[in-house]
Amino acid sequence: MTSAFAPASQQRPAFVFAPDRCTGCEACRVACGNENAGGIDTGWRAITTLNPSRHPALPTRHLSLACNHCDTPVCALGCPANAYRRDAATGAVLLEPDKCIGCRYCSWLCPWDAPKFDAAAGVMTKCTFCSPRLAAGLQPACTQVCPTGALSLGERDGEHEPNLPLLGLDARGLGPALRVVDPRQRPTELPPALAIDAWLDADERVPPQPRPRPKIELRSEWSLVLFTVALPALVAWLGAGLAFPERAPALAVFAGIGGLALGLSTSHLGRPLRAWRAVLNWRTSWLSREALLAGAFVGLGSMALATPLFEGVVPAIARASALAGPLAAAVGLGLAIAIDGVYAAIPRRDRFPLHSADALLATVLQLALALGATVLAWTAGAVTLALLAARVRRGAFGLPAGWAAARLTLLLFALVASATAGWAPALLLALGSQAIDRCAFYAELDPTTPASRMADAVARLAP
Asked: Residues 384, 287: one domain?
């Protein structure tokens, strides 16, 4: 993902963290609250402990982490509302709350788990790098109070990014303003305390690392499930109507479902009245592209279906409306791609190039069923079934096994119905099958964080 969002200078302030010196005292976290929130915990700096049970099979280490103000800030690039900016003086990536719509997407994208949602204000918040203090020649509050020197202020090392799996650190080529060093070693070496082979005893079982609560839960994302199921189905239905006018949806039905899907999607936002800002960052944000294309699709599709209302009354408008149909279909396919792009950009534990619940795959399958294109329908269905079977086999289906069986059954019935019962029952069965899988998709969608990557790294050590 590229952007005009200006990269910071290579020679700029950076957090310097020495794991061997950190005691987990949380003085840095308290100082952050004192400086930025009048003594209330901001949540901007988090302390995560490796091996909190102090089991002798592993070292105990603490990770103090906040926003690392990356050269390539995925939070800013993904923000649909253009609510981020870079401070020219310090290189800090700053969030402007008055522009934020509270979609939480930046927190899904950030591998450092830096942006935090303020439920009371309905917007995201994050570490500011104490920019006013830096501009005044002072250190950030967190580094100034660290009693052991584990957290300090220095300069970023553009050649060596922090990639320490056991501590959950994965820079992902983003150029974070963070150096992780050991005071007894050169910065380019892996600290002995993190070279865990020397700590492990073959006779001891590696204890599990506690996993954090997932950022995304199905019960809180139901509106997004409806949005991502309804709109691809409308794309397929409208596309079939262009080829076979008798299969076209009624204007009231199409506009009603489309408008409801768009409206419900705003209920996910912390600031729904700012939803219009979601289209502002279409150059780099898949979420912004999704919002822009969704509105365009519903508008163009409604215009195309309204063509008969203008025939014989306003011929010029009728001719323009007739052209809106093919354009709406093309925009609809772009919308399906954008929906998938929104989630492909999220760093996740389990991500294959294709997913059985992908919007584009569902659109192709449902369009083929609505058109009666048997070969295409069975081809798309076979791909879907193969992807579904792979997820079930590796235990990655987000719902109980019975729901996977229901998804499979409905899809098979849809394929059979296309040849026996007609296009409408086939489309409805495929829609129900997709709805189940989309629910499972959100149930299993778990953006990685330093804490979750730490837990995964420890789990891989188990015999």
From this structure: no
Of 346, 363, 392, the domain-final residue: 346
The reported pLDDT for the residue numbered 355 is: 92
- Both 59 and 174 in one domain: the answer is yes
How many angstroms separate the CA atoms of 455 and 449, rounded? 10
Q: 141 lies in a domain?
A: yes
Do both 94 and 184 map to the same domain? yes
Contact 363, 333 (CB under 8 A): yes
Q: Are 65 and 143 within 8 A, CB to CB?
A: no
**Same-domain check for residues 103 and 226:** no
What is the tally of structural domains in the chain? 3
Do 58 and 151 fall into the same domain?
Answer: yes
Longest dimension (CA), the chain: 86
Residue carrying structure tokens 């952050």? 32
Q: What is the pLDDT of residues 205-255, one digit of tens each?
A: 778 899 898 888 888 889 999 999 999 999 999 999 999 999 999 999 999
SS3 15: strand
Q: Give the side-chain half-sphere CA count within 13 A for 435.
A: 14
7 in any annotated domain: no
| CA gyration radius, the chain | 25
Nearest to 106 by CA among 98, 115, 97, 119: 115
The CATH number for 79's domain is 3.30.70.20
DSSP for 116-185, please give it. EEETTTTEEE---TTHHHHHTTPPPHHHHH-SSSSEEEEE--TT---EEGGGTEE-TTS--SEEE--TTS
The reported pLDDT for the residue numbered 164 is 86
* Of 219, 225, 443, 242, residue with least CA distance to 339: 225
Residue 193 has pLDDT above 60, yes or no: no
Is 166 found in the same domain as 261?
Answer: no
Does 31 lie in the same domain as 161? yes
What mean pLDDT do residues 378-399 have?
92
Residue 74 has pLDDT above 80, yes or no: yes
Is the domain of 143 the same as that of 46? yes
Q: What's the count of helices (H) and strands (E) in the chain, helices before strands?
A: 15, 11
Whether 125 is covered by a domain: the verdict is yes
Residue 453 is assigned to a structural domain of this protein = no
Q: Kindly state the tokens that stand for 402.
A: 């019975």
Residues in Cβ contact with 437 at an 8 Å cutoff, skipping those fewer than 6 apart = 356, 357, 388, 407
| Rounded Cα distance, 456 and 168, in Å | 8
Q: Does residue 397 contact residue 404 with C-beta atoms inside 8 Å? A: yes
What is the β-pairing status of strands 178-180 and 13-17?
parallel
Q: At what angle do helices 359-371 and 315-344 cross, to 10 degrees?
A: 140
Give the domain extent around 339. 220-346
**Model confidence band, residue 144 (pLDDT cutoffs 50, 70, 90):** very high
Q: Please state the pTM of the whole predicted model.
A: 0.91
